Structure formats: structure tokens, C-alpha cells
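Please, structure for the following, as C-alpha cells.
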Amino acid sequence: MADLWNVWWAWIVLALTLAIIEIFVPAFVFLGLAVGAVVVGIALGFGGLGLVGASPAVLMFLFAAVSLAATLGLRAVLGVRRGQVKTWDTDIND
């Protein structure tokens, strides 16, 4: 199981799984996580940054950092638009 961290296709499968979850639970959170998993998978696939044989802690840190940046970027681009907030004028019990 520990060797699965360093397999590039496992990260791509994780990214696809997270992207499918995003379809059913639209919140832009899972899409940011999918972007992070794709970046780690591509970095492992091409051997970039010397990640071949990297420890799971380094891979998880890269995944977390890229996922956070992607989530914040998606939130800024696709997030809540102005005037989208629902304001209630009446109460259902009135």
C-alpha cells in the first residue's frame, strides 16, 4: 500500500473519482481536490521535481498546497456572484 503513493496513475484515478463526485455534489471543493491530484499524478508521471520515490508526506503536502490554491482560484473565478444571496422577507409560519 505504501508504494501506491508513488504510482502516477493512482493519483489520476483519484482525480477522476473526485471529479465524478463533484458532478453529484457541486461545491467546487472536490474539483479543487481533483486538480491537486492531477498535478501530483502528472508530476509523478513525468518524474518532475524529483518526486519519483518521494515520501508520502511530500506528496500529500504538494497535493494539499495545489488543492488549496485551486479551490481558492475556482472560488474567485466561479464563486458566489453578487446578488446571489437569498433574502427572506416573510416567515413560513406567518
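Residues 1-23+54-78 form one domain. The chain has a mean pLDDT of 84.
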